[in-house]
Every structure is written in structure tokens, then in C-alpha cells.
UniProtKB/TrEMBL annotation:
<feature type="region of interest" description="Disordered">
    <location>
        <begin position="20"/>
        <end position="49"/>
    </location>
</feature>
<protein>
    <recommendedName>
        <fullName>DUF1985 domain-containing protein</fullName>
    </recommendedName>
</protein>
<feature type="compositionally biased region" description="Polar residues">
    <location>
        <begin position="24"/>
        <end position="39"/>
    </location>
</feature>
């Protein structure tokens, strides 16, 4: 049989006109090629969204501090209960103002605060936090004995467990349960024990959960000794421990903030109040907001104050604060010579 000739037709792509490459167009071609490689997504992979600690939406911290909750509850109390609060020296709660420090500002303060040395350091500005400052922020009786949160005495543990059972709701100790116990309570010691737990859990040393900090019942067994404990030192110690924890978490993630936020213990707005009081702010003009520096600071620090401080102390070129200079400590409410 005659051999069959099979003709293969190969279609070639149309010829493109040659592109003249000059030194200028050559660099342009390299740039375009690099850009195409960098912008083309890899198949099967979604581009990662980078979150930075400087971003307003990438805050690492959350906290439970709330003057609003205290104000609303105190307003609902009867006069006999308010008289008990005054008797124990906690009348500052009747003058509290509702304010909330933005987390972005709190994080900036924590970034520049050392939980080891208790110092805020930014450029040439330094604040050394001490318990005397806490006493001027919160004005209530505080002594020298260490605040107790545990015991090695079995009988003391049994006593505290019995007290804890009053605040238990299932497996939790919700603040709402503590509030309901106080509503109609007229026994001085029982009411004040619950009220102190309520204050600790909302503004003095709030925890990570929306629960009563029942470990402090070790210091509230005998309410006649409440003024002997060094509450100011405990408040500051918890804040600085959480600042140290903040740095540990931040170092663990580097400059990348996790999508999950973390709750922190303690009165973190304390940092913002003291910092604001150290700022050298414009004074003497009817068109300029003025801070009321009277004591206790927690009753004279307002939302308008924090809004003004954040506006005037923020850099116009970045999201950082720290623009305003500091006043000497002798000109602040924390002057040690008063």
C-alpha cells in the first residue's frame, strides 16, 4: 500500500511587532515584570491582612473599668445605704463622672510605660507612678497592711468559702448578683462588704470577666479592718502587672497584632488621668478647654478632658501622642511637698 503522508498543521501565534528596548524602556520592562509578580495572587492562597499596633482598629486590649455602672447603681440606693458609704469614707462615689478613655490612647501609654520600674518614659518626659498618686486619684481610707487574696489557714478558707457562696450564681460570681444583694440590705457590715466588692470589680481593680473579684473577700472578712489595708498599693501593683503582661503579649506577636483581643485587669484609666495632669496645656483663654485639677481626680476628670487631651497632644503627622511638654511635678496635683 502506498504510504500515507500525514500533514501536520501547527498554528503559530501571530507575530508581534518587535519592541524597541532602550535603556529607559528596559528599566521600565523590568519594573513592570516585578510589579506583575508582586501583585499577582498565588493560586489557593488569600492575601494576609496585616494589622499593626499603630492602627486604631488593631487594639490589643479590652478592660472592664466603668464609672457609669457605679454612678447608676449608687443613684438607685436608699439614703440609709448612702449613709453607710459615707461612714466608711467612700463618699467620692457620689461625685463620679462618666468617662471612657479610648483604647488607642491607653495602648500608647502602656507601650511607653514599664511595669518593672513603674515609669512612663517618652523622649525626655518621665512619670514615676507611686501609690501616693493613687491616693489622690481615689480618696478613701487606705492603710499599710498588705491586701490579702489568699490564706494558708484552713479555717480562714472555710470562712471565705461561706462568704463566696452568697455571691455565687451557678459556677460564676456575676456582679449583678452582688448588686441584687445590696438592694435591700441594711446590715452595715454585710452591705459594705458587698459594696466594696462591687467597687473593686468595677473601678478599683476590675478583672477580666464580668464577675465579682471574690478573692478579695480574704481582706473583707472583718469590715472594721478595711481601712488598715494598703488598697492604693494593690491598685497600682495590678496596673503595673498588667502593663508588664501587655508588653509580653506585644513582644510575642511582634509588630503584628492578633485578631483576638485580650482583657486586662486593673484600673488602666489611672495612667491616662495622671498623664493628663502632667501635660502643660494652654490656660487662661475662654476659647480653650481647662482641666479641673481638684482632688480626688476621679471625681473631676471628665470625658471632655480626655477628648481635649487626645486632640491637643496628638501628632498631626501620625497616630502617636506625646506632642505637649510636661509640667514640673510641683505644678501638678501630685506635688510631694503638699
Amino acid at each position: 500500500m502506498p504510504a500515507r503522508l500525514v500533514r501536520l498543521v501547527v498554528k503559530m501565534p501571530p507575530r508581534r511587532s518587535p519592541r524597541l528596548v532602550t535603556p529607559d524602556t528596559g528599566s521600565q520592562l523590568v519594573a513592570e515584570s516585578s510589579l506583575a509578580r508582586s501583585t499577582s495572587p498565588r493560586r489557593g492562597r488569600k492575601p494576609k491582612k496585616e494589622l499593626c499596633f499603630d492602627d486604631d482598629e488593631a487594639n490589643l486590649i479590652k478592660h472592664r473599668f466603668s464609672t457609669k455602672r457605679v454612678i447608676n447603681f449608687v443613684d438607685s440606693l436608699g439614703q440609709p445605704q448612702k449613709d453607710i458609704i459615707k461612714k466608711y469614707g467612700f463618699e467620692f462615689v457620689f461625685e463620679l463622672t462618666k468617662f471612657c478613655v479610648p483604647v488607642s490612647f491607653l495602648e500608647w501609654l502602656m507601650v511607653h510605660t514599664s511595669g518593672v520600674t513603674n515609669e512612663f518614659i517618652y523622649r525626655d518626659k518621665v512619670i514615676r507612678f507611686g501609690k501616693d498618686m493613687v491616693k489622690k486619684v481615689f480618696k478613701f481610707p487606705t492603710g499599710k497592711d498588705k491586701v490579702e487574696t489568699y490564706s494558708h489557714d484552713f479555717e480562714v478558707d472555710l470562712e471565705v468559702d461561706e462568704l463566696k457562696s452568697q455571691y455565687r450564681d451557678g459556677r460564676l460570681f456575676p456582679i449583678s448578683r452582688c448588686m441584687s444583694l445590696m438592694k435591700d440590705e441594711l446590715d452595715e457590715h454585710k452591705f459594705m462588704r458587698s459594696f466594696m466588692l462591687f467597687l473593686i470589680s468595677t473601678i478599683l481593680i476590675p478583672g477580666k470577666n464580668n464577675d465579682v473579684q471574690v478573692e478579695y473577700l480574704y481582706s473583707l472578712r472583718d469590715m472594721s479592718k478595711i481601712a488598715k489595708y494598703d488598697w492604693a498599693d494593690k491598685i497600682l501593683d495590678v496596673v503595673m502587672c498588667e502593663v508588664h503582661r501587655f508588653h509580653s503579649l506585644r513582644n510575642s506577636y511582634g509588630r503584628m497584632a492578633p485578631k483576638k483581643q485580650f482583657y486586662f485587669d486593673g484600673c488602666l484609666p489611672l495612667l491616662a488621668i495622671v498623664y493628663s495632669d502632667f501635660l502643660d496645656l494652654p490656660q487662661g483663654s475662654a476659647h480653650v478647654h481647662s482641666l479641673d485639677y481638684r482632688l480626688p481626680r476621679i471625681t473631676h476628670f471628665t470625658q471632655a478632658d480626655i477628648n481635649y487631651v487626645m486632640q491637643i497632644d496628638k501628632s498631626s503627622r501620625s497616630s502617636h501622642f506625646g506632642v505637649r511638654p510636661f509640667r514640673d511635678i510641683s505644678l501638678t496635683p501630685y506635688c510631694p511637698f503638699e
